[in-house]
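Tokens for chain A. Residues wanted.
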């Protein structure tokens, strides 16, 4: 099953343990994680259910391509990392 790993920074604000999902897409996997941990949704998705601008997702070491529909495919052994993007100078 694909595994979602949330950044430790999110754990300062909300319960965000690693999560195993039975999903074929990023959207499905995240929805399953949010069903188990509802408060996590607002830290990851905006009002349109798109990734927030300060969030970046990597699937098997590659940056997710679809920030809007979250349609990136997952393999049964995929590892998804959900991180807060850093900005500044």
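Reply:
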């Amino acid at each position: 099953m694909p595994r979602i790993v949330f950044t430790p920074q999110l754990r300062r604000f909300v319960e965000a343990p690693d999560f195993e999902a039975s999903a074929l897409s990023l959207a499905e996997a995240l929805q399953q994680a949010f069903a188990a941990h509802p408060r996590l949704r607002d830290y990851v998705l905006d009002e349109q259910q798109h990734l927030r601008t300060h969030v970046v997702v990597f699937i098997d070491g590659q940056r997710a391509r679809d920030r809007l529909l979250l349609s990136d495919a997952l393999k049964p052994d995929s590892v998804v990392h959900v991180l807060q993007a850093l900005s500044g100078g």
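The chain has one domain: 3-84. Strands lie at 3-6, 19-20, 55-59, 62-63, 79-84.
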